[in-house]
Amino acid sequence: MRIARRGRMIGVLGFLLAGAVGIISSTQTWLTVERADAGEAILVPGASALPLLAPLSLAVLALGVAMSIVGPVLRLVFGILGLATGLFLAWTTVQLFLAEPLAAVRTTVTETTGLAGDAAVADVVRGIALSAWPVIALVGWVVLILASVVVVLTWRRWKTGGRRYRTDAPHGTESSGPVDAIDSWDDLSRGTDPTR
To answer: Could you tell me the pTM of the whole model?
Structure first.
């Protein structure tokens, strides 16, 4: 099956793409608050609308980078972590569409106006408009979820990492001579004479 053979590439690229979209979207305007007091509109970035957006997106990027070199068990663990993170971020993003996102703008409105408390913030807010960035982020979370599912289904079939990442020699294989300088140093580190 083609997906099984390309599981590593799909997983790593999916994680990196979703993490990058999350980081970029955390700095962009997600919500625009129209004020009832005729003041200037308040722009709410993604990091303020969803406080966990930036740190979880960074974690997804780190998982994507590490996934390319880790062993089989950690691949599965990273796939499960990516799936849980994608589901959580997708659910919290969908909440902005399902309900009036007053909670998502409360902190930014309080910082801008100096008014605190649910009632005071609600009095200032006349309306809240969503930008395209929550939709773009949601697409990123769907990519993360799908990539995580691919990782969970294919982690056993991935080729192992390169020899340079290994700390021990593979059992039952003998080198006929040094392949390159890095392999020679690896052989020396294991106590093997690379000139034999």
So the answer is: 0.72
